[in-house]
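Supplementary Text 2. Reproducibility record for the structural model of the 322-residue chain.

All settings were left at their defaults, and a single model was retained for analysis rather than an ensemble. We include the record here because the model underlies the residue-level annotations in Supplementary Table 4.
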Amino acid sequence: MNFDTIPDLTEKGRRLNSGGRLADLLLKSMIRALHLVRRLAATALLGGLLCAVLVRLAPGFEVDEEQLDARRSEESRQRLRDARKVNGDVLAFYGRFLKRCAQGDLGESSLFHKPVAELLRERAIPTAFGVLTGLGVGWMAGLAMALAAVRTRWRLAAAGAVAPAALLQCLPAAVTALLLFCLGARGALASGLAVALALCPRIVYFALNILREAYQTAHVQAARARGVRARWILARHVLPACGPQLLSLAGVSVSLALSATIPMEMVLDVPGLGQLAWQAALGRDLPLLVTITFLMSLAVTAANLLADLSGARVHRDAAGAA
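Retained model, structure tokens:
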């Protein structure tokens, strides 16, 4: 027996074992990615279908406002009625809609008589600016107020830090936008500020409970008793422990921001997607409204999936460090 070949066989076994683990890891990653894509697609498809059903069942769907124009001829009115009947079958309409989307065609708006893709390009920038501004300002203000309430030892000071958020939480989003409108606020920046005012109280409420639980853990209490600096405790112990919950809250806040955008843009007269969705709902513009709902469903679901993945990664890193 040649014992010189034993190290070579051992090295080959190690390589095969390492290759097998890598292949297993890649397979698990592919299965997880397919599951996430399936979840994302199912949520967006279901959101678009439910929107189409609700618009179809809305009173007066069969009647177009243009049919009431006395200047139109009977032939022109009949064409409008025929166009409504084409979209009357929800499943057939949704099938055609998905087929056009697969071909890169989002259809034409029956209210604006323009391609839906062109309308989305025109209105997307103000909405994106308002939502991102609202998320940024709302999160900075909400976390600052929650940390101020948690770290203070005086109950009266803690109540003073949370009181503005409680007051804002009593106001609907439309009322907040109306108050800003009365103060002379206009444009996408005002819409972002209104979204921030709508998000801030909810962020304060949930972040306050999450931070309180983290500060009440044994190792944080021991660090505070030993006189460890508050910034060090916050950076090294509190925020890593709160990371998964805060990231999940960030995913939910995206849906809250998008839902608050519709009344904000209507009241503040911002030409964004929220105002476009409102106008499409009033005009029963089925192709436009279904497209907006489909895209918003994709955005909300993607944000929540990203938050879940990031939270799981932060949790694994924190467990590994511990």
